[in-house]
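Hi all, posting the design record for the shared folder.

TITLE: backbone redesign
STEP: 1 of 1
STRUCTURE INPUT:
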């Protein structure tokens, strides 16, 4: 009986000690080129990598790179902000087969990536930012360059509890096979440049994407593509110098249209593409205020909506 009580007390003390350590994690930590992941990641003793700092940072904490350097790859497993200090060139860089930022943070977590350069030297690498699980992801002021799958990839389908929220602002997505591939999120892309990818934006089934005040240019295949059951809203953008500017998709069975994507376009310039518009049976709607001209083949909207 005494042994059982002793064991129970020892277990309880261990749990309390672990809880105390968890509660003691700081909410602000730091990484630097001169840091060491064995340190505590304070401003005076920074860690060397974001991966080393994450276990030493509390949920909803902020990790800041204080000087210009490369900080490896990272798996984010909780609500966090990863950022570079003003004027700092902080690089997250992967090898030939790496996803550089992998987000496994849980369906209610809020994660932010701010002022980071996410990069690979090999087009064989997978994705710059791979979203497996998150409640909300903010990508702000980042450069994502050179990935063999996608610059940002939100895969899978929405769950019974809803879809992830993705907000991409003031970010450059370039030289990727797909700049942004959205399959399990409600995404807002605002004031971004999506340039010289194979496909600029790819909207997969169940996803809903708003693209506003963006330049979608020089993408060799398609600027913006919405696949079956995907939806896109394009507002005040320039879509130019792409193989195809905007492309939809549909599916038929026994000669009957059974599924299609839906795209609405407002105040957007679609010029100097190989093909401007390629509905392919989708619902591609204009608000009667777009400029469609000087493409190899202009194509046409499938419908128009009267402005209110």
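Okay, here is what came back for every position:
SEQUENCE:
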């Amino acid at each position: 009986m005494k042994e059982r009580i002793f064991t129970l007390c020892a277990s309880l003390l261990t749990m309390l000690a672990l809880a105390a350590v968890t509660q003691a994690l700081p909410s602000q930590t730091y990484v630097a080129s001169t840091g060491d992941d064995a340190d505590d990641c304070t401003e005076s003793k920074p860690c060397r990598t974001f991966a080393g700092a994450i276990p030493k940072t509390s949920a909803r904490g902020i990790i800041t790179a204080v000087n210009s350097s490369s900080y490896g790859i990272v798996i984010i497993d909780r609500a966090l902000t990863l950022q570079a200090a003003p004027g700092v060139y902080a690089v997250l860089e992967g090898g030939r087969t790496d996803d550089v930022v992998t987000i496994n943070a849980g369906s209610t977590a809020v994660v932010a990536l701010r002022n980071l350069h996410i990069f690979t030297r090999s087009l064989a690498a997978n994705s710059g930012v791979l979203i497996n699980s998150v409640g909300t992801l903010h990508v702000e002021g980042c450069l994502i360059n050179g990935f063999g799958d996608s610059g940002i990839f939100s895969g899978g389908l929405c769950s019974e509890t809803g879809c992830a929220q993705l907000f991409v602002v003031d970010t450059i997505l370039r030289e990727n096979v797909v700049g942004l591939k959205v399959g399990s999120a409600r995404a807002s892309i605002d004031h971004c440049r999506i340039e010289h990818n194979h496909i600029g934006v790819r909207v997969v089934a169940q996803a809903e994407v708003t693209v506003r005040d963006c330049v979608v240019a020089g993408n060799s295949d398609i600027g913006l593509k919405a696949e079956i059951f995907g939806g896109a809203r394009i507002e005040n953008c320039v879509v130019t110098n792409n193989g195809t500017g905007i492309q939809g998709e549909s599916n038929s069975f026994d000669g009957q249209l059974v599924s299609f994507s839906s795209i609405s376009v407002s105040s957007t310039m679609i010029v100097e593409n190989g093909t401007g518009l390629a509905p392919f049976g989708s619902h591609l709607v204009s608000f009667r205020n777009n400029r469609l001209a000087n493409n190899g083949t202009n194509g046409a909207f499938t419908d128009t909506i009267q402005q209110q």
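COMMENT: The radius of gyration is 23 Å.
Let me know if anyone wants the other runs.
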